[in-house]
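Consider the tokenized backbone below.
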């Protein structure tokens, strides 16, 4: 409920007042409307007419010459459209079209073209069609320029392609010649490397030496194995010899040891590195024992019997076991000297001698292989540096050769690409990059200009006129800081408006020597204004319920406070009150001039004690209307208004007069009005309409309020009722309002005279 009650209500009277505030600017508003219309007429008369046309252009794109000129492909990508539209609407194409039509000279620039064709728009309708809109000042231009642009683009495209082709051919030919020189130099370099580095011989030699590291490792492994076997053979032979010395040389022990040695050597029977005819250092010989003896370093040729495979020992060993078995079987049957036993014993002895011979041959073969492996290791070890040297030479030469060969391959590929480009550029001249076809005009206005538009200019002129007609008065109203209306002053001051005084001639306003009964039968609009002010003063007494002494002042001079004070004193006197009018503006008071009396001796003499009260008072009319003018200007007399002499004087006047009206100096800049607040019952502030600034009024009120002033209210003076706004608000203060009342009274008076 509180929210709804606090919402501002619509006030139609306030709206009407705001509207009527523009009435005083009627002539200015009409002038601004005329200015707006005149601006529209001038704009229409001096604007250059423009015409417009819209044409359709079809577009067909082919592959770029350096990509594929033999198979046409229609481009559908957005990037193609953007690049083509940029080229098509470019300044060179437009200038070429204008020169083709003879519109511009050879030295013309884009600015010259812009003055002739202010707007050119090219928009894609779809992937194959364009919409070309031309806005120009010449009807011929809008008719012919689209076709001229299409032709100019085709010509520039052809010229550009031919220029590019010639330049490309020249540049590519130079590059091909340079590549040929590079290729020739590269071939010569390859031949030089192959010849100087002996690359072929080195590679063949490297092939022959590739197995050396492998053979050396294998030989060392076999030698290590054979060394272990040889050590074991020597140990077994020594053991067999020691056992034979202790137990005798029995045939059983001897043959058993020999069989063990044969088994050990049998593992190397097929693994031989010595061939028939190899020349080797002489090996040790067997001389009754199994230990080898070193001989002098002589060369030895390997014979077939030394390396042939010896396998019969396995058969002999098997026969030996059979013979031993037979002897053991027949020993139970036959005596040792029996013929069967002798034959078997003889065969056993022959077999054992054959086994011994086989052992000697196998041991000799083992020694030959061992010696051959040692010789082979020495030979391979001797050739390792040669292998490394040849490998390093081949690597270095191969790197140089491969580098030159890679360069040769690069030159060959570059020559192949340049050859393709040369062929493409040379044989692609019959194809167009973009083919444009002018399909005709779809819209043409070459008789009635599209600009300036009469309707648009008329609307714009009216809009400018209305903006000026309402904008300028609004600005003037906002910038106007003067007090204009009673509600406005009541809102900003917080005081009540106790009346207004219409703008009246000085002679009528200052004719105070009128009869107190004037306007009694028929109201007089001017006198009624002061009677309203008089009534409101009586209705607004101070806290002590007194309104006997009334001080009339204003914020600044020339606001009509003197005329208000004199007429207000007349109004109080006209209702039968004994009234005293005091002119306390001791510097510039002019009540004596308004009433038409002598200013001497006046208030200044009275304050100084140079005259009596009866001498200072002037009686200006019957009914008790007395006036004390200001008197001559005497320095220092204004200070007496603030002293007890004036306060005591007023107390004496209170006893004699029913109403005392004081005409005080302006508030701003002078101190008398503020000082007099302690001796008066209240103050009437006079404000001149549309002349006194609102800030002046507020400053004056602030000074008076600091002096504890009581305000009867304010009077809005010099209100011009001829203005529509003022007449609407205060028409009952106007003369026609009372004239109407007078016309209504006349029939009643006539009716009263009938018999």
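A designed sequence for it:
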């Amino acid at each position: 409920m509180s929210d709804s009650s606090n919402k501002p209500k619509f006030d139609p009277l306030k709206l009407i007042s705001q509207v009527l505030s523009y009435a005083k600017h009627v002539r200015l508003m009409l002038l601004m409307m005329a200015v707006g219309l005149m601006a529209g007429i001038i704009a229409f008369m001096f604007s250059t007419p423009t015409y417009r046309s819209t044409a359709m252009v079809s577009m067909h794109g082919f592959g770029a010459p350096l990509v594929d000129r033999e198979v046409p492909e229609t481009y559908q990508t957005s990037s193609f459209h953007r690049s083509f539209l940029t080229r098509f609407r470019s300044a060179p194409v437009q200038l070429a079209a204008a020169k083709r039509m003879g519109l511009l000279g050879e030295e013309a620039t884009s600015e010259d073209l812009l003055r002739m064709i202010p707007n050119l728009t090219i928009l894609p309708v779809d992937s194959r069609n364009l919409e070309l809109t031309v806005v120009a000042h010449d009807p011929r231009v809008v008719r012919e320029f689209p076709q001229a642009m299409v032709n100019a683009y085709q010509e520039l495209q052809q010229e550009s392609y031919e220029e590019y082709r010639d330049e490309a051919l020249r540049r590519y030919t130079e590059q091909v010649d340079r590549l040929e020189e590079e290729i020739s130099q590269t071939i010569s370099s390859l031949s030089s490397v192959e010849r100087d580095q002996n690359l072929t011989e080195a590679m063949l030699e490297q092939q022959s030496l590739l197995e050396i590291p492998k053979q050396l490792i294998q030989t060392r492994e076999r030698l290590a194995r054979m060394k272990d076997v040889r050590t074991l053979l020597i140990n077994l032979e020594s053991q067999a010899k020691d056992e034979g010395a202790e137990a005798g040389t029995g045939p059983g022990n001897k043959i058993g040891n020999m069989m063990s040695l044969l088994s050990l050597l049998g593992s190397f029977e097929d693994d031989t590195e010595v061939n028939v005819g190899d020349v080797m250092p002489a090996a040790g010989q067997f001389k009754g024992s199994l230990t080898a003896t070193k001989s002098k370093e002589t060369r030895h040729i390997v014979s077939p019997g030394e390396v042939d495979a010896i396998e019969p020992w396995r058969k002999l060993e098997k026969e030996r076991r059979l013979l031993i078995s037979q002897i053991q079987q027949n020993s139970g049957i036959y005596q040792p000297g029996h013929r069967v036993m002798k034959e078997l014993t003889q065969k056993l002895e022959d077999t054992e001698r054959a086994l011994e011979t086989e052992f000697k041959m196998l041991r000799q073969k083992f020694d030959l292989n061992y010696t051959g492996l040692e010789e082979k290791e020495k030979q391979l070890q001797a050739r390792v540096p040669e292998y490394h040297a040849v490998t390093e030479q081949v690597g270095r030469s191969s790197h140089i050769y491969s580098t030159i060969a890679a360069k040769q391959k690069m030159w060959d590929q570059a020559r192949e690409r340049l050859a393709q480009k040369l062929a493409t550029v040379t044989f692609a001249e019959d194809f167009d990059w973009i083919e444009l076809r002018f399909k005709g005009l779809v819209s043409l206005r070459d008789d009635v200009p599209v600009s300036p538009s009469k309707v648009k200019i008329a609307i714009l002129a009216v809009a400018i006129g209305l903006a000026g007609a309402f904008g300028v008065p609004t600005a003037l109203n906002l910038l106007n800081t003067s007090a204009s209306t009673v509600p406005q002053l009541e809102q900003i001051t917080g005081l009540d408006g106790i009346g207004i005084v219409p703008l009246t001639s000085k002679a009528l306003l200052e004719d105070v020597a009128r009869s107190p009964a004037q306007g009694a039968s028929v109201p007089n609009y001017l006198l009624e204004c002061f009677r309203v002010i008089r009534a409101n003063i009586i209705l607004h007494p101070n806290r002590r319920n007194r309104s006997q002494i009334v001080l009339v002042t204003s914020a600044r001079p020339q606001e009509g406070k003197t005329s208000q004070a004199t007429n207000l004193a007349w109004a109080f006197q006209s209702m039968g009150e004994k009234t005293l009018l005091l002119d306390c503006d001791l510097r510039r008071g002019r009540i004596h001039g308004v009433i038409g009396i002598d200013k001497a001796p006046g208030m200044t003499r009275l304050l100084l004690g140079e005259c009596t009260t009866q001498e200072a008072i002037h009686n200006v009319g019957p009914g008790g209307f007395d006036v004390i003018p200001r008197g001559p200007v005497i320095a220092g007399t204004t200070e007496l208004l603030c002293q007890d002499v004036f306060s005591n004087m007023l107390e004496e006047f209170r006893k004699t007069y029913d109403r005392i009206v004081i005409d005080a100096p302006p508030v701003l800049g002078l101190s008398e009005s503020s000082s007099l607040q302690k001796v008066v019952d209240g103050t009437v502030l006079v404000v001149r309409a549309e002349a006194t600034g609102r800030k002046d009024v507020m400053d004056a009120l602030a000074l008076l309020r600091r002096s504890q002033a009581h305000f009867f209210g304010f009077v809005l003076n010099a209100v011009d009722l001829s203005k529509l706004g003022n007449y609407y608000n205060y028409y009952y203060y106007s003369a026609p309002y009372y004239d109407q009342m007078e016309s209504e009274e006349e029939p009643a008076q006539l009716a009263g005279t009938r018999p």
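Residues 339-427 form the longest helix (89 residues).
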